[in-house]
Design a protein that fits this description.
Keywords: Dioxygenase, Iron, Metal-binding, Oxidoreductase, Vitamin C. With about 325 residues, the protein is of the alpha+beta class. It contains 7 helices and 16 strands. It folds into 2 domains: about 90 residues, no CATH class; about 180 residues, Jelly Rolls. About 30% of the residues lie in helices and about 20% in strands.
Length: about 325
Amino acid sequence: MGRIRQYPPHLFLPRRQARHTAGMTEAITQVLRHLAARELSEARSTLRHLAQAGDPEASLLEVTLTANGTGGAPDWRKAFAQLADCGARFGGEFADQLALMEQMDLDRDGYPKRLPEGDLIDASIQMQRFEGFLSPAECAFIARTASDILAPSMVADARTGAFKAHPVRRSSEAPIGPTREALPIQAILRRIAKASGTAVTQGEALTVLHYAPGQEYRPHLDTLPDTANQRQKTFILYLNDAFDGGATHFDVLGITVKPRAGDALVFDLVGQHGSPAMAARHAGLPVTAGAKWIATRWIRARPFDVWRGPEAA
């Protein structure tokens, strides 16, 4: 796992790809060749040309990549100005994103001006619950961003690199990769960073998980073997609560957290000396009725580069 992680291809697909022009397809192909920063820069150049020509799809993707720094330095203020301009020109999704962010009370760099206060559940792993961390509209936006690419949870075989069914997690999942990180998503990632006392660059791709009745995540640790950039924290966003079962259970601590829509849970994964904290072992209990939606952000010790792998940053 210390090597470049083999992400499924849909991690890098932007939304609403059916409307891409030929030029847009060329740009996406460049972005998918993610190992070389030079090619990412070329993709940004192609997007700039298409956006200037009035292509709304290219404009939407350019806003996203400008903010998260794919193919260049991250620039929230420039990206927000681009989004505002596109909102005036195109309306639609651009205007919807602007309206959502107007409700977020952000500073000029996309960070929240204030946070809900966290309630300490357990001091040994600094487990905190934030009530009302997300609004209902934000929960819906996260789920909608990932809904069209949900796929059965898989894991890469350490020997072959091929994907196989996840051995302990029975669910559907969708990582919100760098081409899908619309500005509302990136604002939420900044909120997670501020609430967890980390840098936004330390986070892996926000991963949406969907559990149907009978599905679960068996007891596990979120730390990884053989990596020099270990996961330090897990941050869970509960996107809904219209289901039965599905609680987050910490078997070593004997603590069960019942999901509530809009709440968030954060806890440490390692102890003082960097070894996995057994107290952080947890499970997503089986869903017995309805469908459970959550999103998880795993936070590393150092910056995490989704394009080049966890050790590259």
